[in-house]
Amino acid sequence: MSDRSHRVVPKHQILVEVMLASQKLQKGTLYLDLDERLLDFMNRPEAFIVVVDKAKPSLTTIVNKAHVVMIRELERLEVDFSL
Fold first, then answer.
1. What is the pTM of this model?
2. SS3 at position 34
3. What tens digit of pLDDT does each residue of 43-79 get?
4. For the chain, N or C: smaller number of CB within 10 Å?
């Protein structure tokens, strides 16, 4: 078994607004690969996305992509995941 505790995965974060089919507006942060755009991220095969609340990072929402009506990028920030 390999030890992945020292593995560094460079990411950037973007602040997004997500409108759900229930008309709920979710605002939070998504973490994308460095060379990835929001469109690429949403076209990944995974059925869910993880939205981290910007004001309260301990609050994380798992959203089913099938319920996303609209998503838009508000802000892009660089993230350093160095250990």
1. 0.76
2. coil
3. 999 999 999 987 788 889 999 999 999 999 997 765 5
4. N
Q: For residues 70 and 73, what is the distance between their CA atoms, to the nearest angstrom?
A: 10
18: which 2 tokens? 């997500």
For residue 82, count other CB atoms closer than 10 A to its CB.
6
Cα gap 43→54, rounded to integer Å: 23
In 3D, which of 2, 69, 3, 57 has the Cα closest to residue 28? Answer: 57
Residue 24: HSE in the Cβ half-sphere, 13 Å Cα cutoff: 9
Spatial separation of the C-alpha atoms in residues 63 and 7, rounded to whole Å:
27
